[in-house]
Inverse folding.
């Protein structure tokens, strides 16, 4: 299996995980099967779409509709088999796959921005973060849920650190892009996986004091 | 009256209906006349604007500002004459005109996407849905209202089915685009009109169980 | 100091003020330092980014990352020194600087749109308003706060009037663009400053009756 096809298959698995976790996140709100599909697709491809609008390129899913098809299919499966996916072990597996997706999409988004020589070094980091979390934030805003920017979840911070590391690495070793891409994706995923496994949060002294409870 | 001018006048009537129903939807929130205008315009042209950003073409309202002018005027009239528009018969008329607008804008959005050969067959359906419901969702998110993706209203589903039908029709009869456009707009509107008239909703077995009430 | 460098420095000060007032606005929600940075940056550059997407030009912050850097730095300072910025005199100063920013960004946004000959005369006014208030609305939607379109705050109305005035002025004196730009920015700021100083609101007869409290 080549590097490209490995990335492609990982992206498909991650798209599936994004759609499934989206459906689980909104299932307690009384959403119909059409809303489930729309929000599943939006979560899976929304971040990359916003990134591509800012980069002024065609949204990545237009040329190859497989990401839309996978997101629709995964949303429908998750709708029908909600009780399966909420079982602890399956849910935990989905959380890790979702974390893999955030790492993969974030680092890929930063790399795409870097390769277009677009606002180095901050724009690749910003667009990497948007790629990873943009879809989930759109979903939560539309579903009326508290989104992850308003929690102390360690989700976006690993992505930000991974994208920053990628920019530093590419600055010093511009010829080693593939190795950097793999290393930063793995490191980002390991940070997120550690946060899931040990239930790590942003420490309280780095959080403003909530008056809304 | 030619086909083009018929479509043009229908689009203007639909723009008016979108702005009026927007003002009625948010009137109970204590919004000032400026907010009413902004949310009326946003509801009327927001979906088409997002579609055009994704298609990477100039927003449709820039070349002909009549849609903005109509939306502003209709918003102001609806603000001043709220008590008129909330009378049952007038309100019902507005609901049907709004449904006509959703059918018209949705099918037109799908056709525009199809003619640009953009991500066939799923992108025309997706962008048709965005054209029809995008503005209303933007409005509801900004006004802090529950939006229609979170209800069991039969509003977006007729649009989605109509756009799908258009793609199937154009696949088999690519030379009959005008007939297909008219037929799918009528069918979409009839589905929506039936939902309004008989108060049809998505059946409960296709809705997740709400825990938030 | 030339006109251009004066505008540049004013824009940097305004970017700082937008980020600081953003952090103060969301501080009571329990946001971590990363969320503070993201929402600070989004508030400062979000409106101009949406304007540039609609204009189909590269977002203004990509070519010169100083606006992102200033917004990040100001967000971090505001996070650390929240107790300083909430002192009445400092807070009032920030309110006025934020009003200066709204005037400056709004009028600049309208001028940029005018110079591209884009949808005159309504599009420059609409995009001027989006430039001034778009970032704040994005922030409030994501933070789950009531945004200024849903209040009777005199914030967007001065910007709208200033942009309208600019279009009227440029229509009659197209050669005096620089003078018009300065005059309309000053007038817009003075309207906003008067609203802050005398706590002016939209009068009740121009507001719909709220049933949600």
């Amino acid at each position: 299996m080549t590097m490209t096809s490995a990335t492609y298959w990982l992206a498909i698995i991650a798209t599936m995980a994004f759609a499934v976790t989206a459906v689980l996140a909104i299932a307690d709100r009384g959403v119909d099967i059409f809303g489930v599909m729309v929000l599943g697709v939006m979560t899976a491809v929304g971040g990359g779409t916003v990134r591509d609008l800012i980069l002024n390129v065609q949204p990545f899913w237009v040329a190859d509709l497989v990401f839309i098809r996978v997101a629709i299919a995964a949303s429908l499966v998750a709708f029908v088999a909600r009780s399966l996916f909420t079982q602890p072990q399956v849910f935990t597996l989905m959380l890790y796959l979702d974390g893999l997706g955030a790492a993969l999409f974030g680092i890929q988004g930063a790399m795409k921005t870097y390769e277009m020589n677009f606002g180095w070094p901050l724009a690749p980091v910003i667009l990497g973060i948007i790629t990873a979390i943009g879809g989930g934030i759109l979903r939560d805003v539309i579903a009326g849920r508290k989104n992850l920017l308003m929690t102390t979840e360690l989700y976006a911070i690993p992505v930000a650190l991974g994208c920053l590391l990628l920019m530093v690495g590419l600055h010093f070793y511009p010829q080693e892009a593939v190795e950097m891409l793999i290393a930063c994706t793995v490191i980002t995923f390991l940070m997120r996986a550690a946060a899931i496994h040990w239930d790590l949060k942003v420490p309280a002294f780095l959080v403003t004091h909530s008056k809304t409870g």
